């Protein structure tokens, strides 16, 4: 009987710790679709740091997850392109950030997207784009638009599935 109580106590503690970690520290997400090719492919699994943005805002180049506006169950994964106050535009498939050409070695070849902007990112928001710009539902779409920093669920820091493609992201 004493052993059973110890097992139950251990299981309850493990469940509580798991809920705390998932709620406040990190969470697993499944990549849905091809908007982040070649960085991520459909059905890959990533771990997201939910803690980091309690202390600072998202930075250029970071990959974040967030709910589709007005659809909490639909989670998107995109790259931070514009921070608050930034001027962002795409001209002839080239990204310009604050009038400076950005080297985007991470995007899918010939996928910089149609001309866009210029737009200025408002305070408290970020502009997010997929790496596969020709097939991405992102901040260029009025349905998505700028994303409130408070709506970002976290920063992607690791792909853990498939095992053959495990990778940490800065």
TrEMBL record:
Gene this protein is translated from: lepB
Q: What is this protein called?
A: Signal peptidase I
List its EC numbers.
3.4.21.89
Residues covered by the Peptidase S26 domain? 5-161
- Family the UniProt entry places it in: Belongs to the peptidase S26 family.
Output the Gene Ontology terms for molecular function: serine-type endopeptidase activity; signal peptidase activity
Q: Which domain of life is it from?
A: Bacteria
**SUPFAM superfamilies reported in the protein's UniProt record:** LexA/Signal peptidase (SSF51306)
PROSITE patterns per the record?
SPASE_I_1, SPASE_I_2
Could you name the active-site residues? 35, 78
Q: Which reaction does it catalyse?
A: Cleavage of hydrophobic, N-terminal signal or leader sequences from secreted and periplasmic proteins
Native species: Alkalicella caledoniensis
Compartment(s) where it occurs, according to its Swiss-Prot or TrEMBL record = Cell membrane; Membrane
């Amino acid at each position: 009987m004493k052993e059973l109580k110890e097992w139950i106590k251990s299981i309850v503690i493990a469940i509580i710790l798991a809920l705390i970690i998932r709620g406040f520290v990190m969470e697993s997400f499944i990549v849905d679709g091809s908007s982040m090719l070649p960085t991520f492919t459909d059905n890959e699994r990533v771990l997201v740091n939910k803690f980091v943005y309690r202390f600072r805002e998202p930075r250029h180049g970071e990959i974040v997850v967030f709910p589709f506006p007005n659809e909490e169950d639909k989670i998107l994964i995109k790259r931070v392109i514009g921070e608050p106050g930034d001027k962002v535009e795409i001209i002839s498939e080239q990204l310009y950030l604050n009038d400076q050409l950005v080297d985007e070695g991470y995007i899918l070849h010939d996928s910089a997207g149609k001309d866009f902007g210029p737009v200025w990112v408002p305070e408290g928001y970020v502009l997010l784009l997929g790496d596969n710009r020709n097939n991405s539902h992102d901040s260029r779409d009025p349905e998505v638009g700028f994303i409130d920093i408070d709506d970002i669920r976290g920063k992607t820091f690791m792909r853990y599935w498939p095992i053959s493609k495990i990778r940490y992201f800065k």
